[in-house]
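Lab notebook, bench 4. We co-purified these components, and the gel suggests they stay together. Before we commit to crystallization screens, I want a quick structural picture of the whole thing.
Request: model the full complex, all chains together.
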Amino acid sequence: MAYQVDKKSWWEEFKQSQFWKSIFRHGAPTDKRNQSLVILSNVFLHLHPVTARKSGIRISYTWCMGGLAFFIFLVEVITGVLLMFYYRPTAEYAFNDIMALRDHVPLGIMREIHRWGAHAMVITVWIHMFRVFMTGSYKPPREFNWNVGVVLLVLTLLLSFTGYLLPWDQLAMWAITVGSNMARATPFLGHEGPGASLLKVGEVSLVHSGDDVRFALLGGRFVGAPALLRFYVLHCVFIPLAAAVLMAIHFWRIRKDGGISSPV
Amino acid sequence: MDAFKQFVNNISSPQVLVTLAIIFFFVYLKFVRFFTRTPVFLAMLGLFLAFCGVSLTDEHFRSVVTMPDNVPIVGMIFLIIFFTWLSLRKAVDNDIRMERGEPTFEASESKDKLYTWPHLVYIELLCMIIATIVLVVWAIYLKAPLEAPANPTVSPNPSKAPWYFLGLQEMLVYFDPWIAGVLLPSMIIIGLMAIPYIDRNPKGSGYFSFKERKWIITGFLFGFLILWIFLIILGTFLRGPNWNFFGPYEFWDVHKVVPLVNVNLSELIWVKWLGAGLPKFFLQREIFGLVMLALYFGVMPLVLAKTVFRKLYMEMGMIRYSLFIIFLLVLIALPVKMYLRWMFNLKYIVAVPEYFFNI
Ligand code: HEM
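Here is the predicted assembly.
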């Protein structure tokens, strides 16, 4: 034992190595300088400012709900990618793939995490909006970020809605049928919408069940294979990308608007 | 016990529950200082928990509440109750501080700067860990639902939209799809976006408060808690086959028959009151409804601008005021239409089925 006393521990040694230093360019964050550097030199942590007002850091102020919404979004991305390994968005395979996921994949709780995470994200986003409203944080200079948030809210609901169809069971098909039936009634653009019957050339109506907005959404007159593919692409590619971009703007604007709101 | 259940089932109907919710909502806000006191909150929460606990002994109630996709909504109810209380409690505390001439809780801390490492980062870490645990445990104990394979020829009864849209589906009872499914969602989105430009009150920014922002908070909470969350709860737990209404302990009987006796305003006036036939031409037939709408959305804003909202109108200017009043009148129109249905069986105020234009 005696020879260890004057030797540094292997951990201390490791922290002096070229390898460690190539990753972390500062010492342990135990003093002010290093507490700043850890935030500034890490791409993820630098979403935060180095210092912030105590009132805004308190969990009783933000409820951490925006942060949780973001975290759950990341969980959804990861579990979603895992699900994509097993799932094929066609009318023949979709349902069986989900069954197989349940019956054959060991330790399979990815579908559960993904589904309950989706519900949780909707709920956290609502509560986040509620908090932002109750603290008056939408007031100048944060009006624009509130608007970005509203779009994020819509995207969150659309993500959840498009994902609902993918298991391709009765629950999925009919929930989407009920939901998308509304589109029929879009004024002028849906074939049962007010005014649509006015849009005609001679006797030929321009808006009918074969070309209205619902048709565009579903790729057909009812929820079938084309709808499944469309929803899959929207769910796995387009909406997550759009949401990610908007979140980047959202977080950037929080900083540019002067950090978490506080009394003037 | 059975008598209690019978009683609850009997008084349960959309009109009774919505009315009770609205009354409770305004009484709560009126006496917000009393209701947000911790013992009062805990007592009310306890009562609610007791109600839930007792209800869980009922087989039907249990089967609806524990449906996998409904469990998150049960969780949401408790989260909403908690956070509504928390925010109003903090608002009331700040109101009292300001009355005493003291700075708000947030203001007393906003001069202190803390390093985000570790103060913020560790809160975030903790939240992430807790969220992960909750999600994993939830995922282990509750399997995601999977029903029979999709079959376009067999529609389940009830057919429900995903739960977060059930407030809108509930609105379908009172409005045509173009309003409930298209106009309202669009107005909700635009209305939310317009809030920062309509509410020009500089006070109450960056801290919880109620007194300084009474009206806007009341309006927002009414929309959020009653017209959104509460209707979702109704739609999820109390709407059964054929979208019929069922009490919390009532079996979802597919064959429950509810007579449809709804009439349009035009029929009510022309046929019932004037004893004449319905005019052929739709503009003449619907004239009363159209006039009512014109009065509500056209004349009322002007009258209000000259009277109750005079000061507001001066401060806001034309454009802001118009936006504000339209959103406000639509918000009020929703419960108004619901009550018209319940009281007079009124179906449409304006009915022009020729052009799918029914209001
Ligand atoms: C996917 C959805 C969303 C994510 C991931 C997100 C994320 C965040 C995060 C992490 C914050 C920092 C403070 C906090 O946690 O409260 C924040 C602040 C903010 N969010 Fe969101 N948000 C989302 C949706 C929304 C919505 C729906 C709204 C409003 C309609 C909104 C409006 C705002 C505003 C105004 C702030 C600044 C608050 C302040 O300065 O106090 N966000 N958001």
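DSSP finds 15 helices and three strands in chain B. Worth comparing against the SEC data before the next meeting. Residues 116 and 122 of chain B are 9 Å apart (CA to CA).
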